[in-house]
Amino acid sequence: MLFYRNNREDRAAGYQAVVEGNANPLQWLRFGILTAKSGDSPTTLRFEGEETALVILTGTVAVSAGDQHWDRLGGRRSVFEAAGATVYVPADMPFAVSAVSETAEMAVCRARAQQGGEPFVVNPQEVRVAARGQDHWHRQVRDILTTNADGRVQRLVVGETINAGGEWSGYPPHRHQQQREREEAAFEELYYYRVNPAQGFGSQVHYGSRQNPDQAYIARDGDVFAIPDGYHPVVAAGGYALYYLWFMAGPGGRALVPYEDPAHRWVNSPA
Fold first, then answer.
1. How many Å separate Cα 232 from the centre of its chain?
2. How confident is the model at residue 5 (pLDDT cuts 50, 70, 90)?
3. Whole-prediction pTM value?
């Protein structure tokens, strides 16, 4: 299964596994959502053989990992308002999370990794925010764990993208399914969507996969898409902003070398 419907209204406090287990089509990635409420006992998690990026989507939390403790992290009311805070936790290291605000929601992004390393925080002011694209594929991209994490993270690459209504991203369509020097780097990827206003939607296109048929999916608030290979552009419906958290890992390190579909590269050529 590649597309996961994830009704946010039915979510209880605590950790909810979304993409893992026998149904997971990915070899390198796992994903879940952690919901915390003020006054509840801390949620303690440990993922053997997997490093974790804990992306604070909304609310304020306290986090402990190893010998580190942070009293107040996060604070954004919506993923659309600004960059957030992220905690990196090395493989096999237990960590505990509790809500400081009334409620808090976190994305738990995991990748296969070896034991070792130190936990650290990427604060909002350390996130690199850039406008990318042109014409009708403008988007805002927030790089959370990219080159800034070289030497501190084994495999995870993490960021956020926001499309305004009618705008595309992942465009021109690109893939990252083969390891080819200077042409393409092999990564799996996972998207977690939010929509503003929440009743809206976007469309996730997926084609050119080695194992899956060409498809287009309706992406609603809280849905998740696992991308083992293939081209994967996404568009927001008119009138609705579409956010997606994206994270990646693969066998060839952390350097991103996307391969654009040759049929559509021309759209980036000067007029």
1. 14
2. confident
3. 0.95
Q: How far apart are CA 130 and CA 165, in angstroms?
A: 18
User: Rounded distance, CA 86 to CA 70, Å?
Assistant: 11
Express each pLDDT in 93-116 by its tens digit.
Answer: 999 999 999 999 999 999 999 999
**Around Cβ 134, how many Cβ atoms within 10 Å?**
11
Q: What residues does 35 pair with on adjacent strands? A: 14, 105
Task: Work out the pLDDT band at 269, boundaries 50, 70, 90.
Answer: confident
Cis peptide bond upstream of 172, omega within 30: yes
Number of residues that make up the chain: 271
Query: How far apart (Å, rounded) are the C-alpha atoms in residues 156 and 158?
Result: 6
In angstroms, rounded to a whole number, what is the distance separating the alpha carbons of residues 241 and 218? Answer: 14
Strands 234-236 and 29-37 come out as unpaired
Q: Which two tokens stand for residue 69?
A: 């403790």
CB-CB contact of 262 with 163 (8 Å): no
Q: Edge to edge, what strands does the sheet with 86-89 contain?
A: 14-19, 29-37, 103-112, 50-58, 86-89, 120-122
CB 31 within 8 A of CB 192: yes
Helix or strand or coil: residue 126? helix
Q: For residue range 142-174, list pLDDT tens digits in order.
A: 999 999 999 999 999 999 999 999 999 999 999
Q: Which residues contact 238 (CB under 8 A, 6 or more apart)?
A: 165, 166
What domains, with CATH codes, occur in the chain?
Answer: 3-268 (2.60.120.10)
